[in-house]
Amino acid sequence: MPKLSIPLGDVDHDLLSQLEYAMTFVSEDITSYVIDEKNKTIEAEISGESSRESVVRKISELIERYSKREFGMLEGIHFDQRRDLPPIDAWSGMLERRWVTSIGAGHVVLRGPAALLQDLIDAKVRKVFAAFFKAELELYPSTIMCSTLDRCNHFTSFPEHIDFVSHLKQDLDVLNAFSAECREKGWSPDLHHDRMGEHEFAVSPSTCYHAYEGMEGWRLEPPGRCITAILHCHRYEGANHRTLSRLRAFTMREVVWIGAPRYVIESRAQAEELLIQWAKDWELSCTFETANDMFFTQDYAIKASFQRQQQAKKELRLMIPSDNQSISVFSSNFHAMTFGKAFDIKIGERQATSGCIAWGLERWVYAIISQFGFDPQAWPTKLREEYEDHRSRVAS
Amino acid sequence: MDTETVLSTLRDFIRSEFKIPETDSEFCDDVHLFDYGYIDSFGAIRLIAYIEKAYNIKISESDLAIHPLNTIQEISGFVIRRKKGEI
Fold first, then answer.
1. DSSP for A308-321?
2. Do the Cβ atoms of A352 and A256 come closer than 8 Å?
3. Quick check: A74 contacting B, CB < 8 Å?
4. Which of A3, A297, B7, B58 is deepest in the core (most CB within 10 A)?
5. How many other CB atoms are found less than 10 A from the CB of residue A258?
6. Burial of A70 from C-beta contacts in 10 A (0-12 / 13-18 / 19+)
């Protein structure tokens, strides 16, 4: 296969992982790629010589995007708790024990202790965070209107990972032909060609968008309101789907604040303290640090560097000792008036501000088993006690 | 260059550029312009460009990392100290 090598230019070392992640969305003509840090190049293989020019242009555009940094890329570690842990292949171990079954790219079934651990983490969020902030429970549909995503500026920030939803056209001939061909040959994606309706909906990529659209036009009493919700979300990740650390279908629990700026900002800060206490209690090997979203648009640098400069996003990252890397399992976000403006939510005379904290539950499970192994009796004391307590509650 | 003139110039520019109504009682020299939603990331680019042009100074990445420039008061203080060569 034809190969190409493109210089990395001025991309900072710290941004290479984000560039590597983004590379999967550059072109379907790229069959494989690797970032060569030593020689500062991207080495790629492409499907044919005819696509060389276009692939080079696209990769160069991506490199240019990650070379800019309008507001600087502020770094900050707000909490650091490192532990010397042995490497454990959590994915293989869970597969062997049938705690997890892969059912398609980025889709899994969890069972046994892995399922119970995920349930414990969600229960702990409700017990500690939702109770502390007196969060109101809301229940959401798994799909969301594309027009809502548009109003949330989602398409202009993350167009690459949207899983659109569609249906067969309302047409007797189409329905009959589709059904007949499935009966004769079995289903295949080809049978969708020219037979699908409009994509009015997508699978929700995030939990909290429903919170804002559900409050459209509301006038809030000071200081505002707090909501909690859990949702099965979808994000298409191209070739990046792996283990439980990057799923296409995953579960996100959120606590959301909407109201006066001071209420949202102070609540978020309190939540971050609760989270750090949690990390201490469970003896997690982790960092809590300033972060940015993986904006996949030309204005990446403006959005990401401003987000970092304003500390608008922080992440708890848990170590995966076997990879010598960390994964983000929790984020704390401040949106200012973005959603208040988009959905005309007011507090007093001005638009409401909002913030949210979010847990990616499958990632917690993966990281905890990666750090502490498969025997709950060998887990850190408080984690083990809470797990056993939760197990007995579920059993009864 | 006195403080009140710089404050007033910045206040007028921000109010006009970001369409902040005279009736907004929370808008003041000490309000956090970003937390309170007056200016977003693209607005910040416009604000920096304006300051650099109006006062003939440069604001670098490291300035943004070192100096808090979130309120009119903070920005004014930065402009005056930079013009005096103190920073």
1. HHTT-EEEEEEEET
2. no
3. yes
4. B7
5. 27
6. buried
In angstroms, the separation between the Cα of residue A327 and the nearest Cα of chain B is: 26
Q: Read off the pTM.
A: 0.91
CA distance A124 to A146: 32
C-alpha of A190 from chain center: 30
* B28-32 own/partner pairs: CB under 8 Å, 24+ apart: B28/B72, B29/B71, B29/B72, B29/B73, B29/B76, B30/B71, B30/B72, B30/B73, B31/B71, B31/B72, B32/A261, B32/B70, B32/B71
Average pLDDT over residues A194-222: 97
Q: What is residue A361's three-state secondary structure? A: helix
Confidence of residue A302 (pLDDT cuts 50, 70, 90): confident
**Dist. CA A393–CA A36, nearest whole Å:** 51
- Residue A62 makes CB contacts below 8 A (sequence gap 6+) with A19, A22, A23, A26
List the alpha helices (DSSP H) in B1-87.
3-17, 41-55, 61-66, 72-83
Instruction: Count the helix, strand and coil residues of chain A and give each as a percent rounded to the nearest 5.
Output: 40, 25, 35
Q: Which of A71, A341, A349 sits opposite B61 (nearest CB)?
A: A71
Cross-strand pairs, A3? A45
Do A263 and A223 meet the contact criterion of CB atoms below 8 Å apart? yes
Q: Which of B20, B23, B41, B69 to mutate to test the interface with A (most CBs of A within 10 A)?
A: B41
Q: Residue A172 CB: number of other CB atoms within 10 A?
A: 8
Q: What is the ipTM of this complex?
A: 0.78
Q: Do the beta carbons of residue A307 and residue A293 sit within 8 Å?
A: yes
Cis peptide before A223 (omega within 30 of 0): yes
Q: What backbone phi and psi angles, to 5 degrees, belong to A205?
A: -85, -5
Tell me which chain A residue has its CA closest to the CA of residue B33: A336
How far is Cα A161 from Cα A313, in angstroms, rounded to an integer? Answer: 20
User: Which H or E element spans position A381?
Assistant: helix A381-395
pLDDT in tens, B21-45: 888 888 999 999 998 888 888 888 8
| φ, ψ of residue A159 in degrees (nearest 5) | -70, -20
Tens of pLDDT, residue by residue over A336-389, are 999 999 999 999 888 899 999 999 999 999 999 999 999 999 999 999 999 999
In A82-205 the beta strands, taken as DSSP E runs, fall at 100-102, 108-110, 136-137, 143-145, 164-165, 201-203
DSSP annotation of A246? B
